[in-house]
Amino acid sequence: MKAKEHYKNKVASRYIPLEVSRVGLKMLQSDAMYLSVKIDGHLAFLVSNGKSCYLENAGGRRWDDLPLLDEAAKKLNGVSCIIAGEMYVKSDGRSYGFEVPSALSKSPNLLSFGAFDIVENKEMAEAPTWEWRFKTLENWLGTDGMVHLIPQQQSSTRADIGPFFNQAVMNGEAEGVVVRHELGPTYKIKPIMDVDLVVLGYCAGFGDEQDCLRELLVGLALEKDAYQIVGQVGNGLTLQERKAMLKTLEQAPVDSEYMEVSGNNVVFTMIPPKHVVQVKCLDILAETSKGLIRKAQLKWNGKGFEHLGKAHSVSLVAPVIEGLRGDKSANSKDAGLNQVNRWLDAKSKSPVMVKTESSKVLRREVYVKETKGIRAVRKFLAWKTNKEDTGEWPAFVFSLTDFSPTRKESLKKSLSIASSEKEIIAIFEEELKENVKRGWKPA
Q1: Is position 354 within any domain?
Q2: Structural domain of residue 110, as residue ranges?
Q3: How far apart are CA 172 and CA 162, in angstroms?
Q4: Hey, which of 40, 164, 267, 388 would disulfide with 175, CB 3.0 to 4.6 Å?
């Protein structure tokens, strides 16, 4: 299992995504490159002891009785090895990853295995070339049948990649192209993808850019006012566009049982789910070297967000904001999960709550100030979440609630986070010093 884990963590997860128009600018030149179609399937490992075979996926699930294994055993007779490839459903057109789970349970005879690398074999040199790998796989498996080498085209110039991509991808036969440099990096070239996402929260900039948008927290719309978090996106806008978008989104924050921290360690301001943003990306991932990607699902109750738990979600590779879509609504039809369904495990879409400890209040102080019979209130609270191991909450949080009935915005809330008790108490003390001055008295 160690060889397969190493391959998944160190090789398969480190392909470099690249847009085809950037090949001439971003891809290294090499005298020996191997071009192949990117089959849309599930990463799997074919394991042979020389007599029998089995398949195992990246998560450790094993299959011993698939029809394709009989063919694999005949082709690999006497060969002990581990081969990396794609388990997929073969068809006259292109393959789709979402077809694999259905075929496994209902029609396993439709499954094929396309090999693209040798993970382990006693005849392998310490750093075998791609030429050796592909020739060896072709000798073992051939390029036809249910178990086969994915055909490779050798090239010595990047000029071949564009035509190869157009023939394979633009004609609808494959989801992308893989380019392997001899003893160098591997590139995954795919078309730019568009995804429409619901804006769930935002972070403003700081310093000279405090009137500009910094990042958005975005998700996909589910049925019945539920939303699946996808992630954070901040690139793609000019300074003027950032200012204009912040003005459109900026409003009083809503309550939320779920908090997420931006790249500059600021808690996102959660807002009502009514805006849709178009995002472009190079790729969509449903799993990492650690397994399936799981993120929070939220429920909008009309006043704030409830946390439903974690469910299988996706991450976007190199996301870029295109702009708000005023012509679209934050519902499952315009910005729904159907956009990424083929990447997701149908059995893992339902949220699952993780049991956690209750939070522990570290300090709480409330102060009031009366002016001409009108009372203002400021509440200071610091607590330890006891949920930092879930990856969804920070370890320590400080909250300042400021109520003043004479203000246009009567209720204001601010949050800060920290990784240690000492740090959060220091924040607490600094906020007290800044906000409790003459006229304020303990409640």
Answers
A1: no
A2: 2-189
A3: 15
A4: 40
> Which of 143, 162, 189 is where one domain is finished?
189
- Please give the model's pTM, rounded to 2 decimal places: 0.64
Averaged pLDDT, 348-370 = 82
Tell whether 311 and 398 lie within a shared domain.
no
Q: Are residues 210 and 267 in the same domain?
A: yes
What is the distance of C-alpha 187 from the center of its chain?
19
Q: Is residue 355 part of a domain?
A: no
Which of 348, 374, 409 is the endpoint of a domain? 348
Q: Are 276 and 328 in contact (CB under 8 A)?
A: yes
User: Within a domain: residue 65?
Assistant: yes
d(CA 432, CA 379): 10
Backbone angles phi and psi of 305, in degrees to 5: -105, 135
In 10 A of CB 414, how many CB atoms? Answer: 13
Q: Please indicate, yes or no, whether residues 155 and 59 belong to a single structural domain of this protein.
A: yes
Residues 138, 183 within the same domain: yes
Taking the CA atoms of the chain, what radius of gyration do you get in angstroms? 27
Backbone φ/ψ region at 130: left (φ over 0), alpha (ψ -120 to 50), beta: alpha
Are 4 and 81 a contacting pair, CB within 8 Å? no
Asked if the model's pLDDT at residue 347 lies above 60, the reply is no
What value does the mean pLDDT take over residues 341-355? 67
Q: How many domains does the chain have?
A: 3
